[in-house]
């Protein structure tokens, strides 16, 4: 009876059809970061109305090269160069205000000016659930790394941007949000002071100039105030208003995801597709295409297992030819062959609709190219990606071999410009992951991207 009643009720209201709204296309890192997400976002932003960052903080370093000018973005969305595209930083991002303004000022010198309430390089910052990174979170990040090194003989190799401590504050409900900064400053100050006391009881060596940090924050609060909006309403209007192309830019990557990555050698947010909904306050039904970005090989910054790493001349060649140096920390990236086990795993979580395969040009000079296709333990294939790091450290990788194309691909602009051996490599990767490759990157700049369909 209850079911029938519910059905009857539904029937009587069935003339109310929910408008599903505009879809949000998503760009996500499919490896350990630095796959070229910035370049893909910039390319897609040329046809977008809104580009949103949804998680991470200024641990991210996203490079965009347009008209021979190079930009590095850390908190600003990588679509910001496109003057018709509004930029939005969502609630899932942890923001270090001095870092944000430093980045804004640096980019103004390069000709990117922020205008509020205008269609020209506008930036909107979400008011609601926005956790703020303080200088002392960055100091605590450094102290925790020292403690890990002393206790465990190794650390995580974080970017020391305060990401872990800030997300930990969010989870333990001691974090401070932009909406708190926008409200009563004396209430905000006393919560900051309590937080400092908590940290000092854990780390007696922690020195914090709390009054001067608060004074700086008061100035930043006024500078940021005109940019702040309620993000849930902002995104709802963007989705349900006039037709719009909306883009979400992931930071970090699947294998650095707090839940699915190579824990504990990960970052502290969800860098997989779920982080887009929680980091912007949007329904899953409004997620459209999900683009995974992968290099044609693999890199990793920081500590942790890396099964296809090449600690040899191949690794050095990839590092030097690929200029594999971290954008945020300047550390050399570790390099190795493409690993299809991790790409398939990232696809299981994210449901990629297409892949961007970047940096194919870096492989141009190799005689032979290998691709990791399976992991083995004690000579037996394992049918899953190991969650435990001691196990992952031990796996033996099964490779598929390809002979190199030994041709410069950097001028290729369409599929037919690529040598057949490079085409063969791309098709193999595509078939193995089971996801179409939509773009192939052959250089740093915006135009060095072959679009396949
Ligand atoms: P992100 O963090 O994913 O945005 O990537 P990063 O900017 O940290 O690192 C990617 C690096 O590769 C940057 O220096 C890019 O300019 C560069 N890059 C991106 N795509 C290509 C490509 O197809 N070929 C070459 N040679 N470089 C590329
Ligand atoms: P983009 O967005 C590469 C790595 C750090 C470290 C670990 C934890 O440019 O791809 P954290 O400071 O987040 O606590 O560091 O995660 N890491 C990245 N590596 N690219 C990134 O971002 C990264 N963000 C974090 O090197 O190993
Ligand atoms: Mg990067």
Explain this structure.
The protein is an alpha/beta fold. The protein folds into three domains: 164 residues, Adenylosuccinate Synthetase, subunit A, domain 1 (Adenylosuccinate Synthetase, Chain A, domain 1); 89 residues, Adenylosuccinate Synthetase, subunit A, domain 2 (Orthogonal Bundle); 158 residues, Alpha-Beta Complex (Adenylosuccinate Synthetase, Chain A, domain 3), CATH 3.90.170. The protein is built from 14 helices and 20 strands. The strands form five sheets. It has a ten-stranded mixed beta sheet with strand order 9-7-5-2-10-1-11-15-19-20, sandwiched between helices. Strands 14, 16, 17 and 18 form a four-stranded mixed beta sheet that branches. It has a two-stranded antiparallel ribbon with strand order 3-4. β19 and β20 form a beta hairpin. α4 packs across α5. The protein is globular, with a radius of gyration of 23 Å. The site of 6-O-phosphoryl inosine monophosphate has 23 residues, from α5.
Report the principal-axis shape.
globular
**How do the strands line up in the largest sheet?**
9-7-5-2-10-1-11-15-19-20
Helix and strand composition category: alpha/beta
Any idea how many domains? 3
| Biggest sheet layout | 10 strands, mixed
Quickly count the helices. 14
- Spell out which ligands are present: guanosine-5'-diphosphate, 6-O-phosphoryl inosine monophosphate, magnesium ion
Strand content: 15-25%
Low-confidence stretches: 1-10, 117-122
The first-level CATH class name of the largest domain: Alpha Beta
Based on CA atoms alone, the radius of gyration comes out at: 23 Å
Helix content: 25-40%
